[in-house]
Amino acid sequence: MEDSSISDPPFHETYKKLFEKINHNSISISNEEQGEEEEEKEKVGAGADDEECELPVIDLKAVLEEESGDPSPTAAREECKSQIARASQEWGFFQVVNHGISSEILKRLRSEQEKLFKKPFEKKTKEDKFFNFSSGSYRWGSPTATCITQLSWSEAFHIPLTDILHHSNNNASNSLSSTMAQFATTVSSLAETLADILAEKMGHKSTFFKENCLPNTCYLRLNRYPPCPIASEIHGLMPHTDSDFLTILYQDEVGGLQLVKDMKWIAVKPNPDALIINIGDLFQAWSNGVYKSVKHRVVTNPKVERFSTAYFLCPSNDTVIESCREPSVYRKFSFQEYRNQVRDDVQKLGSKIGLPRFLTYEATA
């Protein structure tokens, strides 16, 4: 087993000034800054002790049997599709069971993921050399953080689907590559099925997602959240919405995922049999605000590490996103334009603004 002292990212050394700002809060910052820090601190802690909630749980057996050519009764399929659309409108999050990904694949994925993150930090930062991932796949912390509440206490490998499928074909004996490929192949098909259902419930049957969300535009993200010594002060992942159409998440039993519901933070109760689905910004824009991209975050744990794996259904950069209904709440924009705006906001402001930047004049009037 690798020593965590050489596998963990150097959070304390890299963000030393941010930690000093906490330790000398009353001395080193002005009253105005202190007020801002206290407000941010309250945001981090808010909801951390709230009762866990169970997201809507939807059994996908009926719709997946339809995909495989062995259809369930029409009433069962349509009820399942309606549940998916309703949860996407009311929650922006839901869980799915009988999702087509075997428990064996999920267990193997978690085991391989743990072994990967236990590798020395220096090797992880040279991911192209040691793991055959594209350079820049490994990410940790928050390079633009200017205060402790903008810091994400986590590390991740953000891997294009094309990398995964290519390496699996060329290195079938590699357990990590083959396991990721098995998971990615199934989860990408599931994502497309869910997207098509959501479009259908808006009255649109099209090949839009199949044509625009391709292996070279979609990603798998392997996440690890190390134990954090000051968990009440720091996020595992800052509050945000996802800049995609939808996300499929497999998380462990540790918990830590929270989302906003009825204007307050609530904790999501882990379900070992389920995958979590959440709507992204692009689907909210495409659906003209019908489906909700909900702010969520990960809170840290002082003693236990947490693992999760996320699949992001993303289009090509030149794909144009426009609302499927009129009058449109959002102006038309390309995915590249959206990504550029998010990047600029994070660099200048420390956090993402997202869809409010793209409201039409009529929607803001």
Descriptors:
single chain; 5-stranded mixed β-sheet; globular; 16 helices; IPNS-like_FE2OG_OXY; 365 residues; 8-stranded mixed β-sheet; EC 1.14.11.13; oxidoreductase; 15 strands; alpha+beta
Overview of the structural elements:
41% of the residues lie in helices and 19% in strands. It is built from 16 helices and 15 strands. Helix 7 packs across helix 12, helix 8 crosses helix 12 and helix 11 runs antiparallel to helix 12. About 6% of the residues have low confidence. The chain has an 8-stranded mixed sheet. A 5-stranded mixed sheet has the order 1-10-9-12-7, with no helix packed on it. The chain is an alpha+beta fold and 365 residues long.
